[in-house]
Write a structure and sequence with these properties.
The chain is an alpha/beta fold. It has 9 helices and 12 strands.
C-alpha cells in the first residue's frame, strides 16, 4: 500500500500538506484518484506518493481537473476526540457543555481495561456525548496481523459496550492506518469508519467507511477552523474535526491548548453551523444519499 500527499507552496513561502487516502497494492496497474482543496494562498502544488516498503515507485500518468462538491441540505459539524484522554473530562466536557455541543469520543480502551476505571467514559456518556471505538492498544491496523486486527476491533467494542450499556456503532482507526482488509473487518462490527484523511463529506464522495476530516493539531489556529467551517457552509458539506488532548502544559504535536480550544468553540457557536455527533449526522445524511 501507499499514500499520496499533496504539498502546497504558499505565497508567503510556507508549505502545507494534504494527505489523501491509502492506495491498495495490486498485481496489475489500477487507477488511483482523490480530491483536495488548495489553500487560498497556494501558488503551486506537488504530489508525492509514499510506499510502505523498501523500493521505489515511478509513474508518469497523472491528471488534474476541477472539482465541485454536491452538497447536502445544509452544512454540519461534528467534534470528534481520539484516544480517551482523561484530562479531557475537565478541559473539554465542561466547555462543550457551555455551548450545548455534543461530541463523539473515540476511546482506545487499554487504560480502561488496565485500571477498571470507566469514570471518564461515563462522564461523557451521561452528558449525552457519543462513545465510539478506537481499538484497544492504539496500533496501526494496516501493519498488524489479521488476528490482531480482529482482536483490537472486537475487544474495544466489548469493553465500551459493557461500560456504557449501549451499542458502540462507530469506529475511528488510530493513525488513520487502514487498508481493504481492515475495512472488511470493520464492516463486520461497526456502522461507520472515521479516518484522518483530509476533506469534507458530500453527497458525491460519501463513503461511510471512509469518513473524511480536518485534523486539529498544536499549530492549528482558530482562523483555520473558521475557514473550514465557512467552506462547509458554502458547499453544504459535513465537516468532521479531529481533536486529541486539550490541555495546558506539556503540549505535544496533536494537542490543543485550552485557550485555543475556547476560542474555537466561540467561533463555532458564532458561525451558526449545527453541531452534531457522528450518530446524529449519519441519521440525517444517509436518507439524502
Amino acid at each position: 500500500t501507499g499514500r499520496a500527499v499533496v504539498m502546497f507552496t504558499n505565497s508567503d513561502g510556507s508549505t502545507t500538506y494534504f494527505g489523501m487516502h491509502n492506495a491498495e497494492s495490486s498485481a496489475a496497474w489500477a487507477q488511483y484518484s482523490d480530491t483536495f482543496i488548495a489553500p487560498n494562498n497556494a501558488v503551486s502544488a506537488s504530489v508525492f506518493f509514499y510506499i510502505n516498503s523498501v523500493g521505489y515507485f515511478a509513474s508518469d500518468d497523472y491528471g488534474l481537473s476541477p472539482y465541485s462538491y454536491v452538497g447536502f441540505d445544509k452544512a454540519r459539524l461534528s467534534l470528534t476526540f481520539d484516544d480517551g484522554w482523561e484530562e479531557n473530562v475537565t478541559t473539554v466536557l465542561p466547555r462543550l457543555g457551555q455551548y450545548g455541543f455534543a461530541s463523539t469520543q473515540y476511546y482506545a480502551t487499554q487504560f480502561i481495561t488496565d485500571t477498571q476505571d470507566t469514570s471518564g467514559v461515563l462522564a461523557f456518556k451521561n452528558a449525552n456525548h457519543q462513545i465510539g471505538s478506537h481499538t484497544v492498544t492504539h496500533p496501526n491496523l494496516s501493519i498488524i496481523t489479521l488476528a490482531q486486527v480482529v482482536s483490537e476491533l472486537t475487544q474495544s467494542k466489548q469493553v465500551l459496550e459493557a461500560a456504557t450499556g449501549q451499542p458502540v456503532l462507530d469506529f475511528a482507526s488510530p493513525y488513520g492506518g487502514y487498508n481493504a482488509q481492515v475495512i472488511t473487518e470493520i464492516k463486520k462490527l461497526y456502522r461507520s469508519h472515521r479516518t484522518v484523511d483530509e476533506g469534507y463529506n458530500s453527497k458525491d464522495n460519501f463513503d461511510i467507511y471512509r469518513l473524511k476530516v480536518q485534523n486539529v493539531l498544536l499549530g492549528t489556529t482558530p482562523e483555520q477552523i473558521s475557514g473550514w467551517i465557512s467552506r462547509a457552509q458554502q458547499d453544504h458539506t459535513w465537516l468532521i474535526l479531529v481533536f486529541h488532548r486539550v490541555g495546558v502544559a506539556n503540549l505535544e504535536a496533536y494537542d490543543t491548548p485550552v485557550a485555543t480550544f475556547e476560542q474555537d468553540l466561540a467561533n463555532i457557536s458564532a458561525s451558526g453551523i449545527p453541531v452534531q455527533t457522528v450518530d446524529q449526522a449519519l441519521a440525517e445524511l444517509q436518507p439524502q444519499l
